[in-house]
Amino acid sequence: QLQASGGGLVQPGGSLRLSCAASGVGLDYYAVGWFRQAPGKERKRISCITDDTTYYEDPVKGRFTISRDNAKNTVYLQMNSLKPEDTAVYYCKATHIRTRTNYWGKGTQVTVSS
To answer: Do residues 10 and 75 touch, judged by C-beta distance below 8 A?
Structure first.
């Protein structure tokens, strides 16, 4: 089970930190990705993290930072310099590095508006 949290309403230029907490499964052997889905649009991956590598899509590069704390079984997404176009429901997904088994978390709403 994955649970995404930390969303909310923030003004443009503000920051939020999302958390993706796992229960019943250890994230040590999982790659974890953050995805977002804006109204009327497809869900898209924006960032992911494995043991030692991170990846960012261009729209969030330089503004978002993904990190993991295996001791807390949690992956974070620090979002800075938020823009209205970052408004979306944010989801996390864990993929086992060998079996490719996927777990999706329920989304958390992020709204960037003045």
So the answer is: no
Q: What residue has token string 């953050």?
A: 34
Note the pLDDT tens digit of each residue in 51-101.
879 999 999 999 999 999 989 999 999 999 999 999 999 999 999 999 999
* Residue 112 to residue 81: CA distance in whole angstroms: 10
> What ranges make up the beta strands (E) of the chain?
2-5, 8-10, 16-22, 30-37, 44-49, 54-56, 64-69, 74-79, 88-96, 102-106, 108-112
Model confidence pLDDT, tens digit, residues 4-13: 999 999 999 9
- What residue spans of the chain are helical by DSSP H? none
Tell me how far apart the alpha carbons of residues 56 and 58 are, in angstroms, rounded to a whole number. 6
Structure tokens at 33: 């990705």
